[in-house]
Amino acid sequence: MGIGKGYGKTILFGEHFVVYGLPAIASALDTYTIANVKVVEGNGWTVDDQRPATPGYKKKKKDEAMRSIQNVIEHLNIDITNQKLEITFKGNLMAASGVGASAAQCTSLARAFNDTFDLKLDDEKINKTAYEGEKAYHGTPSGIDNTASTYGGLIWFIKSLSGSKNTMDRMKASKKMHLVIANSGITASTTEVVADVRRLKEENPEKFEKIFKKYKIIAEEAKVALINGDINKTGTLMNENQNLLREITVSGEANEKLVDIALQTGALGAKMTGTGRGGLVIAVAENEESQLKISKAIETKGYDAWKTMIG
Ligand code: MEV
Q1: Would the CB of 141 count as within 6 Å of ligand 1?
Q2: Which terminus of the chain has fewer CB atoms gathered within 10 Å of its CB, N or C?
Q3: What is the 144 CA–ligand 1 centroid distance (Å)?
Q4: Listed residue (44, 46, 49, 53) closest to 34, CA to CA
């Protein structure tokens, strides 16, 4: 039996913009998905998905999940005609929109196959395999989710638009940041939202060019703020990033509500993270006390909230 792990992630800056070659900053979470692979007699493969999940998430993503497993198997040329693979997913990462659940699943599976069949894949190859799996979830993934899931830590990521190697720099924040992650409970389709943004961009290229220019400045300032441990500035920049996400229509009603609750309870900044139109919101808190206050306020309104440290 082989085993593999893939971390969840949160995008601090740059979801959607990253698809168009703009820089983004993501952090891996300390929660992860574990894949187990057992080889038995027979052929084909089965999957038992035991991950904790937002209600409705697994059902909505089922077909994509099945395709992504098949993509990973094909990419690694694993024989399923003379042996049967029994795949199990578990772990403490809540499968929800925005937390990199699909990437964590693909990464953990790539690592589990590596372990089972002693494939000797390095992290670069694991990342590439997870990216192939991610394609089933959204046709044109930027690659940021699988990269964060594979390498962990805080990363500065730029997708190469020419097909050459993406840029991935590990960052070290000089101060850990208290983060609250709030779950709207709504599962969004990344494929649909990314395609809709592309359509809006094609309809109004000038508007998007202006937004992209503003975003690029935010990303560069955020990199400096994080490295310097300037939490106030990081929060302000998150709010500015959120304004731009709102302009490109990916921040849904539930996202806005969660952002408001966080800001009204003292968050230094708050924004949606990941696909948007549901999914998750992140909020930066000044300290542990404030983090607790924000998460309690969110829970009081009937949403799940998780507390984590990043940096
Ligand atoms: C999804 O977690 C992030 C998006 O930017 C899509 C991508 O980067 O592939 C919306």
Answers
A1: yes
A2: N
A3: 7
A4: 49
Q: What angle do CA 271, 277, 281 make, to 5 degrees?
A: 25
In this predicted model, what pLDDT tens digit does every residue of 263-285 receive, in sequence order? Answer: 999 999 999 999 999 999 999 99
Q: Is the CB of 274 under 6 A from ligand 1?
A: yes
Domain with CATH 3.30.70.890 in the chain: 177-310
Q: Is the CB of 183 under 6 A from ligand 1?
A: no
CATH superfamily to which 177-310 belongs: GHMP kinase, C-terminal domain (3.30.70.890)
CB-CB contact of 247 with 212 (8 Å): no
For residue 73, give the nearest of 57, 86, 90 by alpha carbon.
86
Taking 50 as the pLDDT cut, the residues of the chain under it are none
Handedness of CA 165, 67, 33, 125 (dihedral sign): negative
Q: Do the beta carbons of residue 105 and residue 64 sit within 8 Å? A: no
How far is Cα 195 from Cα 139, in angstroms, rounded to an integer? 9
- Out of 1.20.120.80, 3.40.718.10, 3.40.50.800, 3.30.230.10, select the CATH number for domain 2-171: 3.30.230.10
Task: State the distance from the centre of ligand 1 to the C-alpha of 40, rounded, in angstroms.
Answer: 36
Q: Is the pTM of this model over 0.90?
A: yes
Question: Contact at 8 Å (CB) between 146 and 125?
Answer: no
Q: Which amino acid is at 166?
A: N
CATH 3.30.230.10 domain extents, the chain: 2-171
